[in-house]
Amino acid sequence: GKDGYRHYMEKELHEHPVVIGQTLQRLIDPATRRVMMPDLPFDLASLPRAVVTACGSAFYAGLVGRYWLEAVAGLPVDIDVASELRYRDPPLTAGGLGLLISQSGETADTLAALRGMRARGQHILSVLNVEQSTMARESDVVLGTVAGPEISVASTKAFTAQLSVLACLTIAIGRARGTLSEAREQELVTELLDLPSRANEVFDQGQAIREMAAVVAQARDVLYLGRGSSFPVAMEGALKLKEVSYIHAEAYAAGEMKHGPISLIDNTVPIVATLPSGRLFEKTLSNLQEARARGGRLLVFTDTKGAPRLRDLAEIVVALPTVSEFTAPVLQTIPVQMLAYEVALLKGTDVDQPRNLAKSVTVE
Ligand code: F6R
Protein backbone atom coordinates (compact mmCIF):
# COMPACT_ATOMS: atom_id res chain seq x y z
CA GLY A 1 0.00 0.00 0.00
CA LYS A 2 0.86 3.65 0.06
CA ASP A 3 1.72 3.71 3.78
CA GLY A 4 -0.31 6.85 4.38
CA TYR A 5 1.15 8.77 1.44
CA ARG A 6 -1.26 10.26 -1.08
CA HIS A 7 0.37 8.62 -4.07
CA TYR A 8 2.96 5.97 -4.80
CA MET A 9 5.09 8.70 -6.30
CA GLU A 10 5.16 10.55 -2.97
CA LYS A 11 5.91 7.35 -1.08
CA GLU A 12 8.68 6.40 -3.49
CA LEU A 13 10.23 9.87 -3.32
CA HIS A 14 10.52 9.42 0.42
CA GLU A 15 12.29 6.12 -0.11
CA HIS A 16 15.32 7.75 -1.77
CA PRO A 17 17.50 7.77 1.38
CA VAL A 18 16.80 4.13 2.21
CA VAL A 19 17.20 2.96 -1.35
CA ILE A 20 20.54 4.73 -1.76
CA GLY A 21 21.72 3.16 1.50
CA GLN A 22 20.58 -0.35 0.60
CA THR A 23 22.11 -0.18 -2.84
CA LEU A 24 25.47 1.03 -1.53
CA GLN A 25 25.44 -1.62 1.18
CA ARG A 26 25.55 -4.34 -1.48
CA LEU A 27 28.59 -2.85 -3.17
CA ILE A 28 30.69 -1.43 -0.34
CA ASP A 29 32.47 -3.47 2.30
CA PRO A 30 31.78 -1.59 5.56
CA ALA A 31 34.95 -2.90 7.23
CA THR A 32 37.42 -1.84 4.56
CA ARG A 33 35.28 0.92 3.01
CA ARG A 34 36.15 -0.43 -0.38
CA VAL A 35 33.91 -1.13 -3.34
CA MET A 36 33.37 -4.80 -4.04
CA MET A 37 32.14 -6.13 -7.35
CA PRO A 38 30.65 -9.57 -7.90
CA ASP A 39 32.83 -12.06 -9.77
CA LEU A 40 33.09 -10.79 -13.31
CA PRO A 41 33.67 -12.93 -16.40
CA PHE A 42 35.92 -10.19 -17.81
CA ASP A 43 38.68 -7.92 -16.59
CA LEU A 44 37.75 -4.34 -15.74
CA ALA A 45 41.36 -3.26 -16.25
CA SER A 46 41.41 -4.15 -19.93
CA LEU A 47 38.13 -2.64 -21.13
CA PRO A 48 38.96 -0.39 -24.10
CA ARG A 49 35.76 1.63 -23.67
CA ALA A 50 32.11 1.53 -22.66
CA VAL A 51 28.92 2.04 -24.63
CA VAL A 52 26.13 3.11 -22.31
CA THR A 53 22.49 2.93 -23.30
CA ALA A 54 19.02 3.12 -21.78
CA CYS A 55 15.70 4.94 -22.24
CA GLY A 56 14.06 7.84 -20.44
CA SER A 57 15.14 8.45 -16.86
CA ALA A 58 17.51 5.50 -16.93
CA PHE A 59 19.29 7.19 -19.85
CA TYR A 60 19.77 10.33 -17.76
CA ALA A 61 21.29 8.21 -15.01
CA GLY A 62 23.63 6.90 -17.69
CA LEU A 63 24.59 10.46 -18.64
CA VAL A 64 25.66 11.14 -15.05
CA GLY A 65 27.54 7.84 -15.22
CA ARG A 66 29.40 9.08 -18.29
CA TYR A 67 30.77 12.09 -16.40
CA TRP A 68 31.97 9.79 -13.64
CA LEU A 69 33.43 7.07 -15.87
CA GLU A 70 35.35 9.61 -17.93
CA ALA A 71 36.54 11.89 -15.15
CA VAL A 72 37.10 9.40 -12.32
CA ALA A 73 37.88 6.15 -14.12
CA GLY A 74 39.41 7.59 -17.31
CA LEU A 75 37.31 5.27 -19.44
CA PRO A 76 36.20 6.45 -22.91
CA VAL A 77 32.40 6.37 -23.08
CA ASP A 78 29.89 6.51 -25.90
CA ILE A 79 26.27 6.98 -24.90
CA ASP A 80 22.97 7.14 -26.72
CA VAL A 81 19.32 6.40 -26.11
CA ALA A 82 18.60 2.76 -26.90
CA SER A 83 16.05 3.54 -29.62
CA GLU A 84 18.83 5.29 -31.56
CA LEU A 85 21.75 3.09 -30.61
CA ARG A 86 20.01 -0.05 -31.83
CA TYR A 87 19.81 1.38 -35.35
CA ARG A 88 23.21 3.01 -35.41
CA ASP A 89 26.20 1.09 -36.62
CA PRO A 90 28.87 2.24 -34.22
CA PRO A 91 32.18 0.46 -34.81
CA LEU A 92 32.75 -1.54 -31.62
CA THR A 93 35.99 -3.18 -30.62
CA ALA A 94 35.39 -6.69 -29.28
CA GLY A 95 35.89 -6.83 -25.53
CA GLY A 96 34.31 -3.46 -24.80
CA LEU A 97 31.71 -2.91 -22.14
CA GLY A 98 28.03 -2.70 -23.04
CA LEU A 99 26.46 -0.95 -20.06
CA LEU A 100 22.67 -1.10 -19.95
CA ILE A 101 20.47 0.60 -17.39
CA SER A 102 16.82 -0.27 -16.79
CA GLN A 103 14.42 -0.32 -13.89
CA SER A 104 12.15 -2.99 -15.39
CA GLY A 105 14.69 -5.00 -17.38
CA GLU A 106 11.99 -5.38 -20.03
CA THR A 107 12.20 -2.18 -22.09
CA ALA A 108 12.08 -3.30 -25.74
CA ASP A 109 14.60 -0.82 -27.14
CA THR A 110 17.10 -1.36 -24.33
CA LEU A 111 16.80 -5.13 -24.75
CA ALA A 112 17.36 -4.83 -28.51
CA ALA A 113 20.43 -2.65 -27.89
CA LEU A 114 21.71 -5.26 -25.44
CA ARG A 115 21.34 -8.01 -28.05
CA GLY A 116 23.03 -5.86 -30.69
CA MET A 117 26.00 -5.19 -28.44
CA ARG A 118 26.30 -8.82 -27.45
CA ALA A 119 26.34 -9.79 -31.14
CA ARG A 120 29.28 -7.38 -31.56
CA GLY A 121 31.36 -8.97 -28.87
CA GLN A 122 30.70 -6.58 -26.00
CA HIS A 123 30.67 -7.73 -22.39
CA ILE A 124 27.16 -7.04 -21.14
CA LEU A 125 26.73 -5.46 -17.72
CA SER A 126 23.21 -4.39 -16.81
CA VAL A 127 22.12 -2.17 -13.95
CA LEU A 128 18.63 -3.46 -13.20
CA ASN A 129 15.99 -3.08 -10.55
CA VAL A 130 14.00 -6.18 -11.50
CA GLU A 131 16.63 -8.86 -11.18
CA GLN A 132 14.34 -11.56 -12.61
CA SER A 133 13.85 -9.93 -15.98
CA THR A 134 14.59 -10.64 -19.63
CA MET A 135 17.59 -8.32 -19.62
CA ALA A 136 18.93 -10.00 -16.48
CA ARG A 137 18.84 -13.39 -18.19
CA GLU A 138 20.71 -12.08 -21.22
CA SER A 139 23.46 -10.20 -19.36
CA ASP A 140 26.93 -11.39 -18.35
CA VAL A 141 26.64 -9.48 -15.10
CA VAL A 142 23.75 -7.82 -13.31
CA LEU A 143 24.30 -5.11 -10.74
CA GLY A 144 21.06 -4.72 -8.82
CA THR A 145 19.56 -1.44 -7.78
CA VAL A 146 18.02 -2.27 -4.45
CA ALA A 147 15.05 0.06 -4.89
CA GLY A 148 12.23 -2.42 -4.25
CA PRO A 149 9.14 -2.39 -6.47
CA GLU A 150 8.47 0.93 -8.15
CA ILE A 151 4.73 1.36 -8.68
CA SER A 152 4.43 4.98 -9.80
CA VAL A 153 4.70 5.12 -13.57
CA ALA A 154 7.10 8.05 -13.28
CA SER A 155 10.39 6.70 -12.04
CA THR A 156 11.87 8.27 -8.92
CA LYS A 157 13.79 6.11 -6.46
CA ALA A 158 15.13 3.83 -9.20
CA PHE A 159 17.15 6.79 -10.48
CA THR A 160 19.18 7.44 -7.33
CA ALA A 161 19.67 3.70 -6.94
CA GLN A 162 21.02 3.56 -10.51
CA LEU A 163 23.38 6.42 -9.70
CA SER A 164 24.54 4.62 -6.55
CA VAL A 165 25.45 1.56 -8.61
CA LEU A 166 27.11 3.60 -11.35
CA ALA A 167 29.19 5.47 -8.77
CA CYS A 168 30.47 2.18 -7.30
CA LEU A 169 31.11 0.74 -10.75
CA THR A 170 33.10 3.86 -11.61
CA ILE A 171 35.23 3.40 -8.50
CA ALA A 172 35.82 -0.27 -9.31
CA ILE A 173 36.84 0.52 -12.88
CA GLY A 174 39.02 3.44 -11.76
CA ARG A 175 40.82 1.19 -9.30
CA ALA A 176 41.30 -1.52 -11.93
CA ARG A 177 42.62 0.99 -14.46
CA GLY A 178 44.89 2.61 -11.91
CA THR A 179 43.31 6.07 -12.23
CA LEU A 180 42.18 6.03 -8.61
CA SER A 181 44.48 5.84 -5.61
CA GLU A 182 43.35 3.92 -2.56
CA ALA A 183 43.17 7.19 -0.63
CA ARG A 184 40.95 8.77 -3.27
CA GLU A 185 38.77 5.67 -3.35
CA GLN A 186 38.27 5.97 0.41
CA GLU A 187 37.28 9.61 0.02
CA LEU A 188 34.72 8.81 -2.66
CA VAL A 189 33.32 5.91 -0.64
CA THR A 190 32.99 8.16 2.41
CA GLU A 191 31.12 10.71 0.31
CA LEU A 192 28.77 8.01 -0.97
CA LEU A 193 28.09 6.56 2.47
CA ASP A 194 27.20 10.06 3.67
CA LEU A 195 24.41 10.34 1.07
CA PRO A 196 21.49 8.63 2.86
CA SER A 197 21.68 11.12 5.77
CA ARG A 198 22.08 14.09 3.45
CA ALA A 199 19.19 12.82 1.33
CA ASN A 200 16.97 12.75 4.41
CA GLU A 201 17.68 16.44 4.93
CA VAL A 202 16.32 17.27 1.47
CA PHE A 203 12.80 16.75 2.79
CA ASP A 204 13.28 19.75 5.12
CA GLN A 205 13.00 21.88 1.96
CA GLY A 206 9.38 20.89 1.29
CA GLN A 207 7.98 24.37 1.88
CA ALA A 208 10.38 26.12 -0.53
CA ILE A 209 9.75 23.43 -3.14
CA ARG A 210 5.99 24.00 -2.81
CA GLU A 211 6.58 27.73 -3.37
CA MET A 212 8.47 26.87 -6.55
CA ALA A 213 5.64 24.56 -7.57
CA ALA A 214 3.14 27.42 -7.28
CA VAL A 215 5.17 29.40 -9.84
CA VAL A 216 5.74 26.45 -12.18
CA ALA A 217 2.08 25.38 -12.10
CA GLN A 218 1.10 28.74 -13.68
CA ALA A 219 3.49 28.33 -16.60
CA ARG A 220 2.96 26.86 -20.03
CA ASP A 221 6.66 26.26 -20.64
CA VAL A 222 9.54 25.77 -18.25
CA LEU A 223 13.26 25.80 -18.97
CA TYR A 224 15.60 23.59 -16.92
CA LEU A 225 19.30 24.42 -16.85
CA GLY A 226 22.41 22.70 -15.55
CA ARG A 227 26.05 22.08 -16.43
CA GLY A 228 28.28 19.05 -16.15
CA SER A 229 26.71 16.26 -14.14
CA SER A 230 23.89 18.66 -13.21
CA PHE A 231 22.77 18.80 -16.84
CA PRO A 232 21.31 15.27 -16.76
CA VAL A 233 19.64 16.23 -13.46
CA ALA A 234 17.98 19.12 -15.32
CA MET A 235 16.87 16.65 -18.02
CA GLU A 236 15.41 14.37 -15.38
CA GLY A 237 13.56 17.32 -13.83
CA ALA A 238 12.12 18.38 -17.19
CA LEU A 239 11.03 14.85 -18.09
CA LYS A 240 9.36 14.33 -14.73
CA LEU A 241 7.51 17.64 -15.00
CA LYS A 242 6.23 16.79 -18.48
CA GLU A 243 5.14 13.32 -17.42
CA VAL A 244 3.17 14.12 -14.31
CA SER A 245 2.01 17.73 -14.75
CA TYR A 246 1.66 17.89 -18.57
CA ILE A 247 3.54 21.20 -18.59
CA HIS A 248 6.04 21.55 -21.40
CA ALA A 249 9.59 21.61 -20.12
CA GLU A 250 12.92 21.54 -21.83
CA ALA A 251 16.37 21.00 -20.38
CA TYR A 252 19.36 22.81 -21.76
CA ALA A 253 23.04 22.75 -20.94
CA ALA A 254 23.37 26.17 -19.33
CA GLY A 255 26.17 27.17 -21.70
CA GLU A 256 24.00 26.43 -24.74
CA MET A 257 21.31 28.88 -23.70
CA LYS A 258 22.85 31.77 -25.61
CA HIS A 259 22.90 29.67 -28.78
CA GLY A 260 19.15 29.77 -29.09
CA PRO A 261 16.79 29.25 -26.19
CA ILE A 262 17.66 32.61 -24.64
CA SER A 263 15.19 34.06 -27.15
CA LEU A 264 12.40 32.27 -25.25
CA ILE A 265 13.14 33.98 -22.00
CA ASP A 266 10.64 36.39 -20.51
CA ASN A 267 8.75 36.48 -17.25
CA THR A 268 6.29 33.79 -18.35
CA VAL A 269 8.90 31.03 -18.74
CA PRO A 270 10.26 30.06 -15.31
CA ILE A 271 13.84 28.80 -15.27
CA VAL A 272 14.62 25.93 -12.94
CA ALA A 273 18.37 25.71 -12.45
CA THR A 274 20.41 23.05 -10.71
CA LEU A 275 23.57 24.67 -9.48
CA PRO A 276 25.60 22.99 -6.74
CA SER A 277 28.79 24.71 -5.60
CA GLY A 278 31.97 23.53 -7.28
CA ARG A 279 34.00 23.91 -10.42
CA LEU A 280 31.10 24.90 -12.69
CA PHE A 281 29.29 27.16 -10.23
CA GLU A 282 30.61 30.52 -11.50
CA LYS A 283 30.02 29.62 -15.15
CA THR A 284 26.44 28.61 -14.52
CA LEU A 285 25.88 31.63 -12.30
CA SER A 286 26.81 33.96 -15.15
CA ASN A 287 24.34 32.12 -17.42
CA LEU A 288 21.67 32.74 -14.81
CA GLN A 289 22.60 36.43 -14.64
CA GLU A 290 22.10 36.62 -18.41
CA ALA A 291 18.67 35.02 -18.03
CA ARG A 292 17.74 37.33 -15.16
CA ALA A 293 18.73 40.39 -17.21
CA ARG A 294 16.13 39.29 -19.77
CA GLY A 295 13.34 39.10 -17.23
CA GLY A 296 13.60 35.37 -16.48
CA ARG A 297 12.20 34.16 -13.16
CA LEU A 298 14.88 32.03 -11.54
CA LEU A 299 14.03 29.06 -9.32
CA VAL A 300 17.31 27.59 -8.16
CA PHE A 301 18.41 24.38 -6.50
CA THR A 302 21.83 24.88 -4.97
CA ASP A 303 23.58 23.98 -1.71
CA THR A 304 24.31 25.86 1.51
CA LYS A 305 27.66 26.97 0.11
CA GLY A 306 26.21 28.32 -3.14
CA ALA A 307 23.04 29.85 -1.68
CA PRO A 308 24.46 33.21 -0.48
CA ARG A 309 25.55 34.02 -4.05
CA LEU A 310 22.04 33.43 -5.35
CA ARG A 311 19.84 35.17 -2.82
CA ASP A 312 19.77 38.51 -4.69
CA LEU A 313 19.48 36.93 -8.11
CA ALA A 314 16.88 34.22 -7.79
CA GLU A 315 13.22 34.41 -6.84
CA ILE A 316 13.35 31.16 -4.88
CA VAL A 317 16.48 29.41 -3.65
CA VAL A 318 16.47 25.89 -2.28
CA ALA A 319 19.72 25.23 -0.39
CA LEU A 320 20.48 21.54 -0.07
CA PRO A 321 23.24 20.19 2.14
CA THR A 322 26.65 20.84 0.61
CA VAL A 323 28.21 17.60 -0.58
CA SER A 324 31.10 16.74 -2.90
CA GLU A 325 30.95 17.43 -6.63
CA PHE A 326 31.00 13.67 -7.16
CA THR A 327 27.82 12.97 -5.20
CA ALA A 328 25.96 16.25 -5.84
CA PRO A 329 23.92 14.95 -8.80
CA VAL A 330 22.49 12.16 -6.63
CA LEU A 331 21.28 14.63 -4.03
CA GLN A 332 20.11 17.26 -6.52
CA THR A 333 17.83 14.77 -8.29
CA ILE A 334 15.55 14.40 -5.29
CA PRO A 335 14.21 17.99 -5.19
CA VAL A 336 13.67 18.24 -8.96
CA GLN A 337 11.51 15.11 -8.77
CA MET A 338 9.72 16.52 -5.71
CA LEU A 339 9.01 19.71 -7.63
CA ALA A 340 7.32 17.75 -10.44
CA TYR A 341 5.21 15.92 -7.88
CA GLU A 342 4.10 19.14 -6.17
CA VAL A 343 3.19 20.73 -9.51
CA ALA A 344 1.15 17.65 -10.44
CA LEU A 345 -0.75 17.96 -7.16
CA LEU A 346 -1.59 21.58 -7.97
CA LYS A 347 -2.66 20.60 -11.47
CA GLY A 348 -4.77 17.72 -10.16
CA THR A 349 -3.43 15.17 -12.63
CA ASP A 350 -3.46 11.42 -12.16
CA VAL A 351 0.02 11.41 -10.62
CA ASP A 352 0.69 7.68 -10.45
CA GLN A 353 -0.89 6.89 -13.82
CA PRO A 354 -0.25 9.81 -16.16
CA ARG A 355 -2.17 9.71 -19.43
CA ASN A 356 -0.64 7.80 -22.36
CA LEU A 357 2.17 6.26 -20.29
CA ALA A 358 2.91 2.68 -19.27
CA LYS A 359 5.31 1.57 -16.56
CA SER A 360 7.18 -0.79 -18.79
CA VAL A 361 7.52 -0.10 -22.52
CA THR A 362 7.78 -3.55 -24.06
CA VAL A 363 6.97 -2.43 -27.59
CA GLU A 364 9.26 -0.49 -29.88
C1 F6R B 1 10.44 8.31 -16.50
C2 F6R B 1 10.15 6.93 -16.83
C3 F6R B 1 10.60 6.37 -18.16
C4 F6R B 1 11.51 5.17 -17.91
C5 F6R B 1 11.88 4.51 -19.26
C6 F6R B 1 12.85 3.36 -19.06
O1 F6R B 1 9.85 8.68 -15.32
O2 F6R B 1 9.58 6.24 -16.04
O3 F6R B 1 11.26 7.36 -18.92
O4 F6R B 1 12.63 5.63 -17.23
O5 F6R B 1 10.72 4.04 -19.89
O6 F6R B 1 12.27 2.32 -18.33
P1 F6R B 1 13.18 1.18 -17.72
O7 F6R B 1 14.07 1.81 -16.74
O8 F6R B 1 12.23 0.21 -17.10
O9 F6R B 1 13.96 0.58 -18.86
TrEMBL record:
List, for all copies, the residue spans of the domain called SIS: 40-179, 212-354
Q: Does the keyword Amino-acid biosynthesis apply?
A: no
MF terms per GO, please?
Answer: carbohydrate derivative binding; glutamine-fructose-6-phosphate transaminase (isomerizing) activity
Q: Which GO terms describe its cellular component?
A: cytosol
- Where is this protein localized, as stated in its record? Cytoplasm
Q: What is its EC number?
A: 2.6.1.16
Keyword Repeat on entry: yes
Q: Which reaction does it catalyse?
A: D-fructose 6-phosphate + L-glutamine = D-glucosamine 6-phosphate + L-glutamate
Which GO BP terms apply? amino sugar biosynthetic process; carbohydrate metabolic process; fructose 6-phosphate metabolic process; protein N-linked glycosylation; UDP-N-acetylglucosamine metabolic process
Q: Which residues form the active site?
A: 359 (for fru-6p isomerization activity)
Per UniProt, which keywords does this protein have? Aminotransferase, Cytoplasm, Glutamine amidotransferase, Repeat, Transferase
What does the annotation say about its assembly with partners? Answer: Homodimer.
As for what it does, the entry says:
Catalyzes the first step in hexosamine metabolism, converting fructose-6P into glucosamine-6P using glutamine as a nitrogen source.
- Return the protein name: Glutamine--fructose-6-phosphate aminotransferase [isomerizing]
Q: Which organism is it from?
A: Gluconacetobacter liquefaciens
Give the gene symbol. glmS
Please state which portion of the whole protein this structure contains, as first and last residue out of the total length. 244 to 607 of 607
